[in-house]
Amino acid sequence: MTPRGVYVVFQRIGDDEWKVIAEVPRPPGLPAKRGRAAAIRIALGREPEPGESFAALQRSEWRNAQDV
């Protein structure tokens, strides 16, 4: 079985500050945009509140970005 990948979920905590809050397995059967939104809900255990800001990146992309 091939792994689906993992999303790293971030929460914005300041203008230019982000905090890693979870790593979530990529939900199966969803296109990328919906998969990222689902990963954020899974990480939070709830729907995001108005005014909260989150991002989800594939773990492989997060690792590549750190190598720059």
Classify the helix fraction into a percent range.
25-40%
Alpha carbon gap, first and last residue? 31 Å
Describe the strand arrangement of the main beta sheet, using strand numbers: 2-1-3
Largest sheet composition = 3 strands, antiparallel
Count of DSSP H/I helices? 2
H and E order? EEHEH
- Report the β-strand fraction as a percent range: 25-35%
- Gross morphology is flat
The pLDDT mean sits at: 89
| Number of DSSP-assigned strands | 3
Question: What would you report as the Rg, rounded to the nearest angstrom?
Answer: 12 Å
| Uncertain spans | none
What structural category arises from helix and sheet content? alpha+beta
What do you see in this structure?
This protein is an alpha+beta fold. The chain has helices spanning 32-44, 59-66; strands spanning 6-14, 17-25, 54-58. The protein is built from two helices and three strands. A hairpin with a 2-residue loop joins strand 1 and strand 2 (17-25). The mean pLDDT is 89.
Question: What does this entry show, briefly?
Answer:
Helix content is 31%, strand content 34%.
